[in-house]
# Entry
Amino acid sequence: MKDHFVTRPIDRVSVMGKKAGLKVYELMGDRKTAEDKKVKIAQMTAEALESYLAGRFDEAIKRYEAVRELNPGDRPVGFMLVRCRQYRENPPPDKWDGIFRLESK
# Structure
């Protein structure tokens, strides 16, 4: 996929009843014709998610806010900003793995 499409990682999730998480991606466009702005948004989102998964929530917030400046109204970024702010105020447990577990179908 990387050779043909621009994608950005959105989150790591697991479905109800499963422990393992999968990285969820958003398709941003064809690599040959994608706007530079979309490529930049994809890279910046990947860096923000990396900070989030490492538990560096202040850094993740700054990175996600930078994405939102470039792409106002970005809903996945909005969701991640809420979650980062919640974890900054109420840190996750020590063995937190960064996976968002869906509790219903």
User: Anything to note?
Assistant: The chain has one domain: 5-101. Residues 5-101 form one domain. The chain is about 45% helix and 20% strand.
